[in-house]
Amino acid sequence: MTKTWAVFHDRNARLFLTAVTVSGFGTSALWLASGVWVKDLTGSDGLAALCMLAMWAPTLAGPLLGALADRVPRKPLLIGGSLLLAALLPVLFAVDGPDRVWLVLTVLFVYGAAGVVHDAAESALVAGAVAPSLLGGFNGLRMAVTEGMKLVAPLAGAGLYAVQGGPGVALLDAITFVLAALVYARLRVRESRPDPLAPPTSAGTRDEPPGRAATAAEAPGRRTSPGLSPTSTDRRTPSRRTPVGAGPRHIWAHPILRPLVLAGGTTMLFAGLNGALIYAVIDGLGHSPAYAGALYAAQGAGSVAVGLVSGPALRRLGERRFAAYGIALTAVAAGLRAIPSDPLALACSAAIGAGLPCVLIAALTAVQRETPDALRGRAVATAHTLVYTPNVLGLAAGATLVELVDQRPLSALLGVAWPATAVPLFQRPASASRIASRSPSDANPA
After folding, report:
1. Which of 92, 94, 142, 320 could make a disulfide contact with 425, Cβ separation 3.0–4.6 Å?
2. Can you give the pTM of this predicted structure?
3. Are 315 and 209 in contact (CB under 8 A)?
4. 302, 194 in Cβ contact below 8 A?
């Protein structure tokens, strides 16, 4: 825990976490209120569900949107993106009836697209602004803050919506983005222009914790990132030789990143299936649907807890084992939901909340650490697309299956099948030379 709290001694890390807390509060409040608002205006569950889809859909264009974070200075991009959303959200004051619902969905779509760019720019900038040994702890604390906001902000948003309606929540979110922009303006960072990507080198073939000894590319006096050309320097010149697809190719060809990102995507697929069963689990316990609030609260508490200890855990275990143990814990908890018991259901929710973020934190930390600065925006956005898209597919499949099959055998099956996702992470990673020697078509998932 000592190293985790050391993150707060880093000025830039503190500012990033402050911005995440402030803007995350507004985003979580709007996430709940937008669906309720559209439901009240139209009476349609389908249109209310489209609010979440509108915010999520831009993630599919992650590699393309993430390229903006590699072509534009990232600090001004964070400030400008926050101010853009602060100026956009008051447009929702014009929504006064069901015929203006399209305006809500349009704003949410732009909101989601800006969020993809924002997340890519922030993660890329953090990797260069925060000490490498603190990245794991920072990402864990970021997860803890994000999950903590999900426990508090929706309730605040619901209360504000009851008093001021949707426009009041939109105004609150706009204010949080202005405050976040002021925080980003205080960052002390020195940015450089993109460089072409060199093929992965053997420097990144070991699965070591973030606190490992510096490689040649990280030696004092050199400001090159792992994987950059040995001739790269501080004064990088713009290059057009790094296309949008360079981010996906980098992840696919990298011996550490590919298994972690694939494990994250598979895990989120199973998480979607598991999430679709939640109300069937509640029915089996004999409770009303409102009991979901208690289960979600327990899950959020587990996520906050693992976020606080992820830094030391990553240093001790390395990304692969940390992710694998988290997947195993989540799988066991999902399987035990087949047993109808209130205490067990709450314990399983807490365990899922603790286990599920492990692979997400591990994958993001590895992408930040093992990707050249010139490609971090695209790589982070690509990783988000590959990890989170399967979650929606899993939710859709689970919603269908739960209508056809009883929840108990489905939960038991998840408990048996899910652990297979962790098996590749316990194996020795392939060498970089072996992966780099494959044909270009093998290295490009497209």
Report:
1. 320
2. 0.71
3. yes
4. no
